């Protein structure tokens, strides 16, 4: 409380009145308009091949170019639908609208992109998300999309086919996502996100080989996985079949409870010798 002109006034009430007066006089048009979008980097692995989900744009700008699934955040309720409660909700909404992929998947925020000329229409800031899951289904063609497809990572790098040159600055977003995935495999249990609930050590090694794009020594990898506390848990069961060359059936594992690997599986610490050691 404080005294004003002989009258006691509550400071909280005064602050609320000042805030209301400020907002009533505030002119949002005094600032340059900007827009916010969300983009989704969806990743999966099929037959040992790491894939990214791209959509071919069916509308301008950059009509016909391949891009990440994305769209504008809905700030208000309107004819197109209700406002997005939060950015992850917007990301899952545009993913469902443009590809019909499941909306129950886990998203991880990748980064924010706001280069001045990244979009020719206006100043656009985009919040990008990563989505990783095993053997995701084929996408369906959605709104404002001419085509949707899973595209191998290797065709999106330097020297890849010109037809897959991404729209806007999505090449930068994709490069950041690929490096994030590769780095997180070193320090976290992210690799299990690419696998079904039950898997063999060979299955896990193939994820590392696909994402890191290099062969790994099977016996060394097996030893390091089992030496990382909480990374995987032995189910006590065996796979239904042996390896490609026959032999004993390998053990089945499930993801452990840890999210951080101690010690980490550093890329620089792995050599490229062959071998198989899935029977232990």
Q: Your description of this structure?
A:
The structure is a single chain. The protein is α+β, with helices and mostly antiparallel strands and 280 residues long. The protein has five helices and eleven strands, in the order ββαββββαβββαααββ. The strands form three sheets. Strands 3, 4, 5, 6, 7, 8 and 9 form a seven-stranded mixed beta sheet that branches. It has a two-stranded antiparallel ribbon with strand order 1-2. β3 and β4 form a beta hairpin. The radius of gyration is 25 Å and the shape is elongated. The C terminus is likely disordered.
Task: From the structure above, extract its key features.
280 residues, alpha+beta, seven-stranded mixed sheet, two-stranded antiparallel ribbon, elongated
Extended strand count: 11
Question: What would the average pLDDT be, to the nearest integer?
Answer: 86
The first-to-last residue Cα distance is 74 Å
Poorly predicted parts: 271-280
- With helices defined by DSSP (H or I, 4 residues minimum), what is the helix count? 5
| Class from secondary-structure proportions | alpha+beta
Helix content: 10-25%
Question: What global shape is seen?
Answer: elongated
In sequence order, what are the helices and strands, one letter per element? EEHEEEEHEEEHHHEE
Largest sheet: 7 strands, mixed
Query: Could you tell me the radius of gyration in angstroms?
Result: 25 Å
Report strand %. Answer: 25-35%
């Amino acid at each position: 409380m404080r005294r004003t002109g002989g009258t006691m006034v509550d400071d909280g009430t005064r602050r609320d009145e000042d805030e209301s007066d400020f907002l009533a006089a505030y002119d949002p048009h005094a600032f340059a308009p900007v827009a916010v979008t969300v983009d989704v980097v969806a990743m999966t692995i099929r037959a040992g091949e790491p894939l990214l989900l791209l959509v071919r744009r069916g509308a301008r700008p950059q009509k016909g170019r391949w891009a990440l699934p994305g769209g504008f955040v809905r700030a208000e309720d309107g004819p197109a639908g209700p406002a997005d409660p939060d950015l992850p909700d917007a990301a899952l909404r545009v993913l469902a609208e443009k590809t019909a992929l499941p909306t129950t998947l886990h998203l991880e925020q990748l980064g924010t992109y706001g280069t001045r000329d990244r979009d020719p229409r206006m100043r656009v800031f985009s919040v990008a998300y990563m989505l990783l899951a095993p053997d995701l289904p084929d996408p369906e063609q959605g709104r404002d999309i001419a085509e949707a497809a899973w595209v191998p990572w290797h065709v999106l790098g330097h020297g890849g086919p010109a037809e897959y040159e991404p729209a806007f600055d999505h090449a930068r977003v994709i490069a950041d996502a690929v490096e994030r995935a590769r780095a997180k495999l070193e320090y976290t249990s992210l690799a299990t996100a690419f696998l079904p609930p039950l898997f063999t050590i060979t299955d896990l090694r193939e994820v590392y080989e696909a994402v890191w794009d290099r062969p790994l020594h099977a016996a060394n990898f097996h030893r390091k996985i089992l030496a990382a506390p909480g990374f995987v848990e032995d189910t006590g069961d065996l796979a239904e079949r042996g390896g490609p060359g026959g032999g004993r059936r390998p053990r089945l594992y499930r993801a452990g409870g840890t999210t951080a690997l101690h010690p980490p599986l550093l890329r620089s610490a792995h050599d490229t010798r062959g071998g198989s050691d899935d029977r232990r």
